[in-house]
Specification:
The structure is a single chain. The chain has 228 residues and is of the alpha+beta class. 21% of the residues lie in helices and 43% in strands. The protein is built from four helices and 14 strands. It has helices spanning 2-27, 31-37, 158-168, 170-174; strands spanning 39-50, 54-64, 76-86, 95-100, 103-108, 110-112, 117-121, 132-138, 141-149, 177-178, 181-182, 184-191, 202-209, 214-220. The strands form two sheets. Strands 1, 2, 3, 4, 5, 6, 7, 8, 9, 12, 13 and 14 form a twelve-stranded mixed β-sheet that branches. Strands 10-11 form a two-stranded antiparallel sheet. β1 (39-50) and β2 form a beta hairpin. The longest helix has 26 residues, at 2-27. The chain is elongated. The protein starts with a helix and ends in an 8-residue tail after the last strand.
Length: 228
């Protein structure tokens, strides 16, 4: 009798162990890991220069291709958005030459109808310590800028902002877990006011699901506190 009880106890313990192993290795979903795997835009560095009438920003990192805000995460590739803003009137198709660590990139800046900036994607990831010189030509006039890395002085990194944002949005992210997949995508950006009047930057971490529902959080770059 005692042998049977002992044998039953051993079998029971083994079954419990097997169930626990299966749960943690097969059935349990690591939502944090899924969220990190579903980041469709991850900013890395932001460079900036300005004069009395205009400013130039180069924002670089990794983002999905194709870049579509549809809740579906695609494979990512390098980007470097060159963004030119000017108060000059009647500007059409300005051209640019961007010299980055000795390599030149040139082309035409396309107008962004949402904020009236002019934009081009160099399709590279620019290192944080890059030396960047940009020349913008408008008709017969040329404007020269030396860009500096502005996020090197931020206390909170893009990676830290991603962690803060995902934690804050976790309840909404969890609603989009389908089996072992996540039906939403995450974006980690550096933002300022749309008119470029302010020099204050924030991190913006957001999620959008396949139904078009979205939610985001604004994070202070110096303290990591939630702004809104």
């Amino acid at each position: 009798m005692k042998k049977n009880i002992l044998k039953f106890s051993i079998v029971f313990v083994l079954l419990i162990a097997i169930v626990l192993v299966l749960y943690f290795t097969v059935f349990k979903v690591d939502v944090q890991a899924l969220a990190n795997q579903s980041v469709s835009e991850m900013g890395k560095d932001c460079f900036f220069a300005k004069d009395d009438l205009s400013d130039v920003k180069l924002y670089t990192g990794q983002r999905e291709n194709p870049y579509v805000l549809d809740g579906v995460h695609n494979d990512c590739q390098a980007f470097a958005l060159l963004i030119f803003r000017t108060n000059e009137m009647g500007v059409e198709a300005p051209t640019y030459i961007a010299k980055i660590n000795g390599t030149s990139y040139n082309g035409i800046l396309e107008q962004n109808p949402y904020d009236n900036t002019f934009v081009a994607d160099l399709e590279i990831e620019v290192p944080a310590d890059a030396q960047i010189e940009v020349t913008i030509a408008i008709k017969d006039n040329e404007y020269n800028y030396t860009l500096a890395n502005i996020n090197k002085d931020w206390a909170i990194s893009f990676e830290q902002a991603k962690s803060i944002g995902i934690e804050y949005l976790m309840e909404d992210i969890q609603k989009n877990v389908k089996g072992r997949n996540l039906d939403c995508e995450i974006y980690v950006k550096a933002i300022t006011d749309s008119k470029g009047l302010l020099s204050t930057y924030y991190y913006y971490v957001s999620m959008i699901d396949k139904n078009g529902n979205s939610k985001g959080v604004v994070i202070d770059v110096q303290t990591g506190e939630i702004v809104q």
